[in-house]
Write a structure and sequence with these properties.
Layout: E1 2-3, H1 12-15, E2 21-28, E3 33-47, E4 53-67, E5 70-81, E6 86-95, E7 102-111, E8 114-123, E9 126-136, H2 146-159, E10 166-171, E11 177-192, E12 195-207, E13 214-220, E14 226-231, E15 236-239, H3 269-292, H4 295-310, H5 315-323
Parallel strand pairs: 1-10
Antiparallel strand pairs: 2-3, 2-15, 3-4, 4-5, 5-6, 6-7, 7-8, 8-9, 10-11, 11-12, 12-13, 13-14, 14-15
């Protein structure tokens, strides 16, 4: 068996359709509503330091359930990179007894090549016990935190595919490194309100060392919305009350292909009219240029006279050599230059 790096087989295009909010309700064994579950995934920025920010996914999940009259709340807020690496995560679990409220606060933060974990037990707003851990990132290949788990589940659900023979790393309840596995239970039917829908079921098992595995089953609609969540042994299940509007990807229309059309501009009235307009525009422009440069007629007269006298075989090269010194792009030169200077317009043999 091998540690599986999910970031190698998923990309930004796979995660982009999974950025949405959803909510479920908690139902007790007797069928009563005893709480809610909300999950939100969106794009955000994470400040690595004072000068550098990184695009990431912000995952927020909140579960509020009242069991036997005792309110229990769990919140998870995590920043996950586009490589599905967790750079920071805050988890708070609270049990509100009447006179003895207890909270467990867990802070996970990645700095350079290490992942730091701080776990604190808080009673009446006072920390009574604190544990700290640190792990080298080189030892966490294939690590999936609880924040990244929501993204991984949604991607699997949209693909309706779970990798085989793969082991992920995660944290157990004591924030120690352990393994987790995903398995598919296939397509099933689920009743949502008055409608029966197809759902894709994924089972996740967390395997702590020397403890009983923690199994959870997740039921997904085709677009990645969670329709039911069951934790084995829990007195409540999470379900949706009505089918949400499914997310559909916009498929771009194919680019139109325009065939080449042969145009006879002399026979086409519109093109011929454009030709005449352009011709008159150029003629007016040339006439204006001649009026503004009275030296041009004299220069042309000298050229024609020299052309008749020399009668060169290559008229184009002769004209280039004649008008070249008058070009504004040429640098100024001294008068009475040598007549045997090689011409730049003639090829050298």
């Amino acid at each position: 068996m091998m540690q599986f790096c999910w970031s190698r087989v998923t990309g930004e295009e796979d995660v982009k359709p999974c950025l949405f909010e959803e909510s479920l309700v908690a139902i007790s064994e007797s069928g009563q509503t005893i709480g809610t579950l909300s999950i939100s995934v969106k794009m955000a920025y994470y400040s690595i330091n004072e000068w550098q920010d990184e695009d990431c996914y912000l995952v927020c999940a909140t579960s509020k359930v009242t069991i036997d009259g005792v309110p229990c709340t769990t919140t998870i807020t995590g920043h996950v990179t586009k490589r599905l690496e967790t750079v920071e995560q805050h988890t708070k679990e609270s049990v509100r007894f009447r006179e003895h409220p207890v909270e467990t606060r867990i802070h996970v933060m990645k700095r350079q090549d290490q992942l730091f974990v701080r776990k604190a037990i808080v009673e009446k707003n006072e920390e009574i016990h604190v544990d700290t851990f640190s792990y080298k990132c080189s030892q966490l290949q294939g690590f999936i935190s609880e924040s990244a788990n929501f993204l991984v589940l949604r991607v699997m659900a949209r693909r309706q595919l779970v990798p085989q023979d793969a082991i992920f790393l995660t944290f157990d309840t004591e924030q120690h490194i352990c393994t987790s596995t995903y398995d598919t239970l296939g397509l099933q039917k689920q009743q949502v309100g008055k409608e029966e829908v197809d759902v894709f079921v994924i089972e996740r098992a967390v395997h702590p060392v020397d403890e009983i595995p923690l199994n959870c089953q997740f039921y997904f609609l085709s677009d990645g919305h969670l329709s039911r969540s069951i934790q084995i042994g829990s007195p409540a299940i999470m379900v949706i009350l009505q089918t949400p509007v499914l997310i559909e990807l916009d498929v771009p229309d194919p680019r139109p292909v325009f065939g080449k059309i042969l145009l006879d501009w002399e026979e086409d009235p519109q093109l011929y009219s454009l030709f005449l307009d352009r011709k008159e525009e150029l003629e007016a422009s040339h006439a204006t240029y001649v009026r503004r440069h009275p030296e041009l007629p004299a220069l042309l007269a000298d050229f024609l006279q020299l052309l008749l006298l020399r009668k060169p075989d290559d008229v184009v090269t002769f004209a280039a050599e004649f008008f070249g010194p008058f070009s504004a792009q040429n640098p100024p030169c001294r008068s009475f230059q040598s007549s045997d200077k090689p011409s730049p317009f003639r090829s050298r043999v």
